[in-house]
Every structure is written in structure tokens, then in C-alpha cells.
Amino acid sequence: MTTFFQYDELTWDKAAELPRDTPLILPLGSGYDLDLVASQLANPPRAGLLPPFPFGWRGSGLELPDSIFAQYIFNLLDSLRDDGFSRVYCLAPAGIDPQSTFIQQHSSSVLRLPSPTHNATPTFLPPDSERGKVILIPIGHTEQHGCHLPLSVDTIIIDSIAKGTQAKMPTRCWTMPVMPYGVSTHRSSFAGTMNAGGRAFEDFWVAVIDLLVARGFDRFYLMSGHGGNTSFLVNIVKFAGERHRRIFCATTWLHTSGRIGSEVIPKYRTSKIGGMGHAGELETSYMLHLRPDLCQMERVVDETDFISTPDYYMDWIEGGALVANPPWDDDTKTGAYGAGSHATAGKGRLWLEAAIEEKVDHVEQIHEQHERREKRREEGFGLWGRK
What we know:
Layout: E1 3-6, H1 12-17, E2 24-27, H2 34-40, E3 46-49, H3 66-82, E4 88-93, H4 101-105, E5 110-113, H5 116-119, E6 134-139, H6 153-168, E7 173-175, H7 198-214, E8 219-224, H8 230-243, E9 248-251, H9 261-268, H10 281-290, H11 345-378
Parallel strand pairs: 1-3, 2-3, 2-4, 4-5, 6-7, 6-8, 8-9
């Protein structure tokens, strides 16, 4: 009998220890019969389930062009192959068109099984009833977070912030299902880290905005829980604003980092600058509050020996004029940049409250920006009067 484990609940060093013939499966959505999955795999003793991919295929509620969707998926699978795993699969619902290029080009890597969830009538994402709201698009990642935190940190945190924001203002915003995969250009340094690829990431999210604009949505907030996504999200916002002149599409550097979050962080932190770079005091506190069952505090290793200069250093809100991307293993032995030992669940609760307050404020600003700009346009401001 096959035992299935959640891949993203592992720490990176435990992922590195997995036998390389362990089947690893990236499901499109959920609701699959795992006994059937095990049978297709010839009943291995263990198999790993990656976080479900939330949408993009036919029947998912938001269907993207085949080539754009497929590139994102198979870049992720290639991340695992690059780590030496030999049995890597995408688990697809039976409703996917068997003639699609997604199936034809990668048939040896696709398991196709009936899925009750996806054989039902699809629901549009987001529902058309949510027009006029800010559409929150939370994007996390599956990547290493030292020896004491799981691969799912970025996804858990940004999903909680997005859901908390919607709960605070349900008439003003609506959140998409969280995307658990982003971009890690440092992917090869520590095992377990996925990478959608920068170009594929940009193409995917621009296509998402294109589809939603075509359905009448006009306000979007791309919310990232992972620093590696940020530069690509800036490009996406620029592409979207150029393609669709009557929308307002925004992003920001991570979370808990704007006007509100940056004021609250120093109130409770006890680590020095460098203690919050990655898997440090901030993220570990969030996880102790949100998912203490996934934290292994006995394995915390504080690493703050980042090679810093006045214009290049590592902390949650990075500073300095220099932008660079040296190998992670230059500065960390365990994958952590920071002081996780300073973390507490109480700090995590307070910082989460601040992060949600910050996002609530951003949602209101997006509404104000869009409405004031539309008023000017309709009044014929400047060149708009010639159109």
C-alpha cells in the first residue's frame, strides 16, 4: 500500500534525503482518488504530493492558452528533475482535452485520472458577481526555508493575509485561490525549491489579467509572499497597464513592508538588521502563529553573516541602491538568512494583523486610484478629450 506524503511540508534537507526514484506528483486541482493514483504508479511504497496547481486548464474555472499553461507546469517539473528525481508527474483530470499540446508533448509525464471536483460544471474564477471589486491575486512559492521551516512558508503566509483581507472587507475585494509556485533564480543552491521560470511566470500572469479584463474586471492586486517573484511582478504590472489602459493593476514588495507594516515590524523585533532576511524572525513568527505543527524550532540555526555593504544587505525590507543575485550558498550554510530563534507566535499574530491592515489600506487606495482616474477620463482630461 502506497503512503502519500505532502512534499511542501518537508524541510529542504529532508527533501534532499528522499530516494531519487520516489514518485513526485503535481496535481491540477484536488479531489483525486489516491488509490487510483497509486495503481497507475505500480503501488510504490511512498509517493509525494506537491501543492495543487489552482487553475489554468480547461474546466478549472480560468482557462489559459495551452502553451502558456504548459510551460509553467513543466518548468516546475524540471525543477525536480534537475534535483535528480526520476519519477516526476503532473496529475491531470480526465476532462483535459487529450489532443491538447499539453498532453501530446508530455504524455509520459502526465497521469490522467477521473476527479469528482473537475468533472463537475466549472465555476468561473472569479465569479462575474465580483466585478467592481479589487481582485486579490496571492502568489506564494514552494522553496527552502532553512532546516526548521517547511517548503510551504511563502504560500501559507500570503494565503492567510489575502483571506484575512477579504474577511475584513468582503464588499471591496475578492481573493483568487493562492498560487503555490513562483520564481527562484537561486533554485539549485538548496534542494526542494521549485522554479516556474521568469518568462513563463510573466506570460502566465499577463494572460490571467488579459482573461479577467475581457470578462469585465478592472482592479487587480498581485500580492506576493516570495521575494523572488517581485521583479517579475513589476514587469507584469507594467505589461498589463500598457495593454489595458482602463484598469488599475498594482503590486508591492512582499507584505508587511509598506507604510503600515514597516512601522510595526520594529516595535516587536528583537533581532538586529539581517535577522529577517529569509526564514528568520519574521517568517518564523508567522509560522509559529499560523502552523506551529510545521515548525521544528529545535532545528533553528541563526545565520546573519550576509556579506553586507552600505548599499547591499539582506533584511525583510531590503535597502541600498545595488541590485544583485549572488548564489545563496555564498551567505548561508542552512538556507536561512536571519535569526529564527527570536521568533514567537505572539509576534506572528501582531505582524499578521499589521499585514492585513496594510493590505486593506492598499485595496482602498486601488479603488480610489481607479475611480479618480476614470472620472478624469470621462471628463476628457488632457489627451483623453481627443479620443
